[in-house]
């Protein structure tokens, strides 16, 4: 979820945990293990909303004000290029397709199109509801809006061409946030949850959860409600998977273990 948490959100989360609501969504879904391959620096001021890997570099979009999109040198965390959004926009997820970078905003119902190699503005598009996460499968843009729905968009017309409903153990799974397309399936962050969901893009069924709670940083400068897991990037050529979180000081390359 994009915004800093509120007291109401915290109370709602506590009530859900106390009553056992939401636990049904993980009852029969397997949990997949992982190992850390390598650790990289990450800007601990970046409120990460979107993350992807393209041609040897990371690209990141952030929320808060001002929000920005940036190109980053993976090994050092050096910012190679950055474009700030006008301060009326709270930035969200992003993805690259056909030489363009597409980025969402939270509640403005506006997305932006940028030239990928230099962030020159190319136009915009509109959508109903909120904008959260974004990725693509090579042919379609894929967008989340904080509900249990995932939308598919035509990258030329930006018209919606379909959607799926995400379910885990037969129950709706909402708060779907940052997205990444990985070898024919969707990986999705869940707002204020330290798990990543592996989603079948044809059915919306969650095939497994990846529990990354051991990577969540702690300390006096970490807000456990806001500085949460969010950000998945896939290097398709190198078969490398990267994860991070909002205002985390590190980005992790991880390797998934086979499901038992």
UniProtKB/TrEMBL annotation:
Leader peptide range in chain numbering: 1-21
PANTHER family recorded: GLUTAMINYL-PEPTIDE CYCLOTRANSFERASE (PTHR31270:SF1)
Superkingdom assignment: Bacteria
Name the UniProt record assigns to this protein: Glutaminyl-peptide cyclotransferase
InterPro entries from the UniProt entry: QCT (IPR007788)
Keyword Amino-acid biosynthesis: no
UniProtKB keywords: Signal
């Amino acid at each position: 979820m994009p915004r800093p948490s509120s007291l109401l959100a915290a109370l709602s989360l506590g009530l859900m945990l106390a009553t056992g609501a939401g636990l049904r969504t993980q009852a029969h879904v397997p949990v997949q293990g992982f190992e850390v391959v390598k650790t990289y620096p990450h800007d601990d001021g970046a409120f990460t909303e979107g993350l992807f890997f393209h041609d040897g570099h990371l690209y990141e979009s952030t929320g808060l004000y001002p929000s920005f999109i940036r190109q980053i040198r993976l090994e050092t965390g050096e910012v190679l290029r950055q474009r700030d959004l006008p301060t009326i926009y709270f930035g969200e997820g992003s993805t690259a397709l056909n030489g363009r970078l597409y980025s969402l905003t939270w509640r403005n119902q506006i997305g932006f199109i940028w030239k990928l190699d230099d962030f020159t503005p190319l136009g915009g598009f509109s959508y109903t509801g909120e904008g959260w996460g974004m990725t693509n499968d090579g042919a379609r843009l894929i967008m989340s809006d904080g509900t249990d729905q995932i939308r598919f968009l035509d990258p030329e017309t930006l018209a919606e061409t379909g959607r799926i409903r995400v379910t885990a153990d037969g129950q709706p799974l909402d708060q779907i946030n940052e997205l990444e397309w990985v070898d024919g399936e969707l990986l999705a962050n869940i707002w204020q949850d330290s798990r990543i969901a592996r989603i079948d893009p044809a059915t919306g069924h969650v095939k497994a959860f990846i529990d990354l709670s051991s990577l969540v940083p702690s300390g006096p400068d970490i807000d456990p409600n806001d500085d949460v897991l969010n950000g998945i990037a896939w290097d398709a050529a190198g078969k490398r998977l990267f994860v991070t979180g909002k205002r985390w000081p590190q980005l992790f390359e991880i390797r998934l273990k086979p499901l038992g």
